[in-house]
Design brief:
By secondary structure, the chain is of the alpha+beta class. It contains 11 helices and 15 strands. The longest helix is centred in the last third of the chain and has 16 residues. It is globular, with a radius of gyration of 23 Å. Its EC number is 4.1.3.38.
């Protein structure tokens, strides 16, 4: 028999005779809001201290109200793009670089922003300030918008812009991880080179790796060349002290790996690296490298010590990997405010 509890969540979890099961009907918005607040009252620390929604037209501080319409085309058709910037020590790192890529992705996805670039930037900075978060991530989306459940966005009155600040701790990654070669087909270059919300292949690739006791996976393209990880770029140091990053023609050009390519010549000046380049690498060449790493916003570099149970180099965290990581981390902490870091004007 169904539970006699008046709690609709409990009722939905304890179903006996389906003929006796009664779905709770919320008779007012205040009743529903009370239920949502009941859920969040059990959370000691709010993971999402602030959200912006163009459908609301402002910043939301109540996590119970951080929702988007069910008929938003980003939800049921995947017609949306996104990007992320980090907040570190009260600064937004590479906000402009990420925002530029965001708008390029939107153009490829044929989504017109409801705001111009300067307004989008202002919203993001104000949102970070309202959150009071000094260390975390700022994630934002541009959607074809709510309107109906069809394929075409023609019935959507306007596109929608959403953003949320995530209270997230992160630090330099100094421990090595293991990876596998993914058997999940990688995205086409058209889909992979725009940062869109269609991440099911990425999710399946990550799950495949976890099933095999690895941290993540590596995609290899149809020609047998190294592509990228499920949501990060990958880089290699050869035995000749060359830093090599795969070409970006079929994969996303990560903002962090592009910054790495700008900073890495400092190690050439020190005589620690021979050169820095992009290029094609076969699986055999990549597995035979001296060092290997993932490159992404909150890592910033994650050492890889084994691939398909085969050690990379000596199977230990590479010295040059950590030297490169220090370059990026130092840039995140104390890089130029004119180009790399934006001070958040906290309220």
């Amino acid at each position: 028999m169904a539970s006699s509890s008046s709690d609709p969540i409990s009722d939905s979890l304890e179903v006996g005779d389906v003929d006796d099961f009664k779905v709770h009907v919320f008779k007012s918005s205040s009743e529903l809001l009370e239920k949502l607040h009941e859920k969040w009252s059990q959370v000691t620390k709010k993971p999402y201290p602030a959200m912006y929604s163009s459908t609301y037209g402002g910043i939301i501080l109540d996590p119970a109200l951080m929702v988007i319409p069910i008929d938003d085309h980003m939800v049921h058709r995947g017609h949306g793009v996104f990007d992320t910037a980090i907040i570190l020590n009260g600064y937004l790192y590479e906000l402009d670089v990420h925002l530029n890529r965001f708008l390029r992705s939107a153009s490829k996805a044929r989504i017109t922003s409801p705001f111009d670039r300067s307004t989008l930037r202002s919203i993001l900075v104000q949102l970070a300030a309202a959150s009071q978060i000094k260390k975390g991530t700022l994630r934002y989306w541009l959607s074809a918008g709510p309107g109906d459940f069809l394929l075409s966005p023609a019935g959507c009155p306007t596109s929608a812009f959403y953003a949320v600040v995530i209270d997230e701790d992160f630090d330099q990654c100094k421990e090595g991880v293991k990876v596998i070669t993914s058997t999940i087909p990688m995205k086409s270059s058209e889909m992979a080179t725009m940062k869109n919300v269609n991440y099911l292949p990425n999710v399946l690739a990550k799950l495949e790796a976890e099933d095999k006791g690895a941290f993540a996976s590596i995609w290899v393209d149809e020609k047998g060349y190294i592509a990228e990880g499920p949501n990060v770029n990958v880089a290699f140091v050869t035995h000749d002290k060359e830093l090599v990053v795969p070409f970006f023609d079929k994969i996303l050009s990560g903002c962090t790996v592009l910054r790495l390519l700008e900073l890495a010549p400092k190690l050439i000046e020190q005589g620690r690296l021979k050169c820095v380049r992009t290029g094609n690498l076969t699986v055999e060449e990549a597995k035979g490298s001296a060092e290997m790493m993932f490159v992404g916003s909150t890592l910033p570099l994650l050492p890889i010590i084994a691939w398909d149970e085969q050690p990379i180099g000596d199977g230990k965290v590479g010295e040059l990997t950590m030297a490169l990581s220090d370059l990026v981390w130092d840039d995140m902490v104390a890089g130029p405010t004119e180009t790399q870091r934006t001070l958040v004007p906290y309220i």
